Amino acid sequence: MPNKFGAAMALVKSDIGGNISRLDSKYQSNPSKYEHLYSMVKEEVEANTAKSGSSCTNGLLWLTRAMDFLVELFRNLLVHPEWAMSQACTDSYGKTLKKYHGWLASSSFTVMSYCS
């Protein structure tokens, strides 16, 4: 992915990979107990750890958000072939991830670092 979409797309790939690894590690710790994602989330909600930055629940949430961003990016690339990658990314970011980033993250972590 980074070769085709720019070096900074490696950040997206790394984030997605990290969240998948977190979920897989939890699953591998007890495959029969964690056969379904719901069981991981339920356990963390009951333990009051679901909102922790290192929770599987949080990882699943951000994995879903990253997928929303990528779907919107690919939609933009299909619908607007005349757009530059930066324009497609800016639009996708604004529609999906921007609302979850604070003003500091949004201003310092530019879309260009995501897709340049």
UniProtKB/TrEMBL annotation:
GO terms for cellular component: cytosol; membrane. It comes from the Eukaryota. This is Pleckstrin y domain-containing family A member 8-like. SUPFAM superfamilies: Glycolipid transfer protein, GLTP. GO terms for molecular function: ceramide 1-phosphate binding; ceramide 1-phosphate transfer activity. Residues 3-113 form the Glycolipid transfer protein domain. Keywords: Transport. It comes from Tripterygium wilfordii (Thunder God vine).
